[in-house]
From TrEMBL:
Residue ranges flagged as DNA-binding region: 42-61
InterPro entries (UniProt xref): Homeodomain-like_sf (IPR009057), HTH-type_TetR-like_transc_reg (IPR050109), HTH_TetR (IPR001647), MT1864/Rv1816-like_C (IPR025996), Tet_transcr_reg_TetR-rel_C_sf (IPR036271)
UniProt keywords, alphabetically: DNA-binding, Transcription, Transcription regulation
Domain of life: Bacteria
Transcription among keywords: yes
Xref: PROSITE patterns: HTH_TETR_2
Domain named HTH tetR-type: residues: 19-79
Pfam families, per the entry: TetR_C_33, TetR_N
Originating species: Kitasatospora aburaviensis
Name the record gives this protein: TetR/AcrR family transcriptional regulator
Amino acid sequence: MPAKSPTGAFARAQARGESALRTAMLDIAAELLATEGPAALSMRRLAAAADCSTTVLYRLFGAKEGIAAALYREGFARLHRRLEEVPRDDDPAAYLAAVGRAYRAGAVEQPNFYSVMHGEGIPGFVPDEASRAVATASLDVLREAARACIEAGVFRADADADEVADTLWAAAHGVISLERGGHFPGALGEQRYRTLTAAAAAAFLA
């Protein structure tokens, strides 16, 4: 069935202001993308699903390409917020592991955004430099956690925090991609995630 916005969702979001309205439109766009594919990301289709005018969408996103860019940035912005919410731990290794679990939780809970963030959701979409900067900044929490492990002696003193973060990110994304492809059903996905990310971290142990 075609994606349809909840009754009154547009009106409620509009009443809460421009930021809430934009977020609501992106949630609807992400759902359309998942249920109907990239062809559904047109101003007319999104306006119909949101029960609003195309004028509103042009004001918010500028054009169809703006929706793709906004979905990409929103996905990484939500990831950043999720990682920042992880409670700090006196044990840097435990905190790093918790950040990793939060990353996977975000991918599992918001697969529509995750697909756009990693080039799977919208064929042909290439994020611009500003959008990539948002993506890079979203992993600052992971880099800080890696740096804390280096400073605490958990990882080698000559380890590079950026390399640690990139390695863990690559390992995490690889497992998540296989899980999303149906290769690690049920609880197996989380089990394989923990195993591979732990193995990736072990490469930097002091």
